């Protein structure tokens, strides 16, 4: 089958991030030039969507591999058996078992920030979107970590220079378990099967754009290294509040078939939990490994 040469049309959002990419059909193979245009748009707008992308898990995985090395999520029970790099996000239960992760994205975060090699980018494809009386629910919110850094006063930028912080999957697990009750609270022994803390710079330099980005995540970042606990807690809460400023945000309203892609260095994201069964939500996700952070 010959590669598909498309003429792309970009439809940017009004704020600092976000654009739709029109004029492309992902069910057919893409030529190199078209793929490169998509990648350039991703680095430029940080969040991009391609509509009407009704992909099978193997198709999503194959397209994702063109961006780099796929990651397999630590929650093996929520991955696709035939294509383990595909991770399911859903509120659906079948045969008494959750289909994927029921409580994903409840806090502002960057995907897999708890690993030494956090995600470079994420691809999330909508299979079922909760809808009632013509209104859709379950939006995904994005915050520009670059715009948030740029807006910091100079004295805060100087204060953050060189600081690192611990990002913990184990910390997040019991935080979610206690706040939302959709997963069990685990003992310290049970938590050992999950990755230990990853220590990352609070301010990252983007590997492509060279722009500086805030890299502290409400759901995972719990301690600034070499600061007293009270000072660490106060500074983290100040940075979390700063990232939550709507001036830095884009809110994506889902349609079935949307393939939403985002740059995990340049943005953080958060799910909107405004729906419940019988309104169903089913998403398939791939993440691409990024570099070790120094």
Throw out a few tags for this protein.
294 residues, 7 helices, globular
Structural class: alpha+beta
What is the count of helical runs?
Answer: 7
Number of strands: 19
Poorly predicted runs of 5 or more residues: none
The largest sheet has its strands arranged as 1-2-3-17-7-19-4
Strand content: 25-35%
Radius of gyration: 19 Å
> What sort of overall outline do the alpha carbons produce when their principal axes are compared?
globular
Main pleated-sheet profile: 7 strands, mixed
Question: CA-to-CA gap between the ends?
Answer: 42 Å
Average pLDDT score = 91
The level of helicity is 10-25%
Structural notes for this entry:
The chain is of the alpha+beta class and 294 residues long. It is 23% helix and 27% strand. It has seven helices and 19 strands. It has helices at 32-45, 57-65, 145-150, 154-160, 169-180, 188-191, 229-243; strands spanning 9-12, 19-22, 47-50, 87-90, 93-94, 97-98, 119-128, 131-132, 135-136, 140-144, 164-167, 198-201, 203-205, 212-214, 221-224, 249-252, 259-263, 267-271, 282-289. It has a seven-stranded mixed beta sheet with strand order 1-2-3-17-7-19-4, covered by helices on one side. A three-stranded antiparallel beta sheet has the order 16-10-18. β1 and β2 (19-22) form a beta hairpin. The protein is globular. The model has no long low-confidence stretch (mean pLDDT 91).
């Amino acid at each position: 089958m010959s590669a598909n040469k498309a003429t792309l049309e970009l439809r940017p959002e009004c704020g600092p991030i976000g654009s739709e990419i029109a004029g492309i059909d992902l069910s057919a193979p893409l030529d190199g030039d078209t793929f490169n245009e998509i990648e350039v748009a991703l680095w430029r707008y940080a969040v991009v969507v391609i509509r009407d992308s009704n992909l099978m898990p193997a198709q999503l995985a194959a397209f994702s591999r063109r961006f780099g090395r796929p990651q397999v999520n630590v929650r093996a029970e929520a991955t696709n058996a035939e294509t383990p790099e595909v991770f399911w996000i859903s509120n659906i239960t079948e045969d008494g078992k959750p289909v994927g992760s029921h409580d994903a994205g409840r806090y502002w975060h960057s995907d897999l920030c708890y690993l030494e090699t956090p995600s470079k980018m994420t691809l999330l494809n909508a299979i079922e979107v909760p809808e009632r009386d013509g209104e859709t629910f379950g939006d995904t919110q994005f915050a520009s970590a670059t715009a948030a850094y740029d807006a910091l006063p100079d004295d805060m930028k100087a204060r953050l220079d060189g600081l690192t912080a611990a990002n913990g999957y184990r910390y997040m697990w019991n935080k979610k378990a206690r706040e939302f009750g959709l997963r069990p609270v685990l003992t310290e022994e049970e938590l050992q099967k999950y990755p230990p803390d990853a220590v990352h710079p609070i301010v990252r330099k983007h590997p492509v754009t060279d722009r500086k980005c805030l890299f502290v995540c409400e759901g995972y970042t719990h301690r600034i290294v070499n600061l007293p606990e009270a000072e660490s807690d106060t500074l983290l809460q100040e940075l979390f509040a700063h990232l939550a400023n709507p001036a830095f945000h884009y809110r994506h309203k889902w349609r079935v078939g949307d393939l939403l892609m985002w740059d995990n260095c340049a943005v953080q994201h958060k799910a909107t939990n405004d729906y419940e069964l019988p309104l169903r939500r089913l998403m398939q996700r791939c993440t691409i490994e990024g570099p070790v952070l120094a």
